[in-house]
Design brief:
The structure is a single chain. It contains ten helices and eleven strands. The protein is of the alpha/beta class. The chain has one domain: Ureohydrolase domain (Arginase, Chain A). Strands 3, 4, 5, 6, 7, 8, 9, 10 and 11 form a nine-stranded parallel sheet that branches. Strands 1-2 form a two-stranded antiparallel ribbon. Helix 3 (about 80-95) runs parallel beside helix 4, helix 7 (about 205-210) crosses helix 8 and helix 9 runs parallel beside helix 10 (about 290-310). The longest helix is centred in the first third of the chain and has 20 residues, at about 80-95. The two termini are about 10 Å apart. The relative contact order is 0.17. Bound molecules: arginine and manganese (II) ion (MN) (2 copies). One manganese (II) ion binds near residues 133, 134 and 251.
Length: about 325
């Protein structure tokens, strides 16, 4: 692939399927369902076109709320999240079957139950890079909040026992040696135990400071993709970034990634040539202190996506 005289070794097939997911059922704060429209209004499609991607007509999913949705144990809105994420899984799988790169814009991070299921249904040997302040690996028992956006990884790994019936369709594709985190700094006690028990590659902000982001990405890829052959799914929660850069999000945590560190992660994954899907999640335009902080958050989301799609690699 040559663009303006520059040869790219990554993203051999530059066809992207944007999947807009205005979904907020995995947490309690209104407004995260507005994220996709804001990101699209920021001009993401044009930006990707200028990076020489062919854009399939954007798929905008709609998520009908079930008439009745009682808690399942501690879990809130299990029917809504279960059916919505199934829809996302089918859409992501179809995008991959059609030879496109699924770029899913959330919406809250429970959507990743769908995106990751869709990717692993097509690429059984894939690995998952989860860039987030949070581990999102609570089980239905360990969740302190009952918000399912704090639980997707446990469902994907089959750690929820018994599995809530709304998520019986989720296959436990994700093995502990195919998952790596970067950016963690707010991990619940139950999650900490799970990460240790399963020996999951978890790089916190401490490791980013200690080793530098370049080394951390290298270490993460060594753990989940030692032979360099696995397809990579990148699931990026905008709250991985420091609230200075991305304040408009539901669960901000201070002391996060700089914009450049987040961009670097995306560039390094693009550079592998193995990136097959990306999620950008948890932008909540209703939560910025003012228009400027919303705009900064949306601009940061567009930046990291462009970096993952090849912008800054020359
Ligand atoms: N996707 C997110 N922003 N997740 C935040 C999760 C917060 C907390 N660990 C919980 O389980 O409720
Ligand atoms: Mn998070
Ligand atoms: Mn998250």
């Amino acid at each position: 692939m040559t663009v303006q005289g520059i040869t790219y070794k990554f993203h051999k097939n530059r066809n992207v399927q944007i999947i807009s997911c205005p979904f907020s059922g995995g947490q309690a704060r209104g407004g995260v369902e507005l994220g996709p429209d804001h990101v699209l209004e920021h001009g993401l499609e044009k930006q990707l076109e200028s990076l020489d991607w062919t854009i399939a007509p954007t798929k905008s999913l709609s998520f009908p709320e079930p008439a009745s949705d009682p808690d399942e144990g501690k879990l809130k809105r299990p029917n809504f999240v279960g059916s919505s994420t199934k829809n996302v899984a089918d859409t992501v799988a179809a995008a991959l079957k059609a030879g496109t790169f699924p770029l899913t814009i959330g919406g809250d991070h429970s959507l990743a139950i769908g995106t990751v299921s869709g990717v692993f249904s097509q690429h059984a040997d894939a690995c998952l890079l989860w860039i987030d302040a949070h581990a999102d690996i609570n089980t239905p028992q360990s969740t302190p909040s009952g918000n399912i956006h704090g639980c997707p990884v446990s469902f994907l790994m089959g750690l929820a026992e018994p599995c809530p019936p709304q998520f019986a369709w989720v296959k436990p594709y994700l093995k502990s040696n195919k998952l790596a985190y970067i950016g963690l700094r707010d991990v619940d006690p139950g999650e900490r135990e799970i990460l240790r028990k399963h020996n999951i590659a978890a790089f916190s902000m401490h490791h980013v400071d200690k080793y530098g982001i370049g080394k951390v990405v290298e270490l993460a890829l060594e753990r989940v993709n030692p032979d360099g052959k696995s397809p990579i799914h990148l699931s990026l929660d905008i709250d991985a970034l420091d609230p200075e850069h991305a304040p408009a999000t539901g669960t901000p945590v201070r002391g996060g990634l700089s914009l450049r560190e987040a961009c670097y992660i995306c560039e390094a994954l693009a550079e592998t040539g193995n990136l097959v899907a990306m999620d950008i999640m948890e932008c909540n335009p209703a939560l910025g202190a003012d228009a400027q902080s919303v705009n900064a958050t949306i601009a940061a989301a567009c930046s990291v996506v462009r970096c993952a799609m090849g912008e800054t690699l020359l």
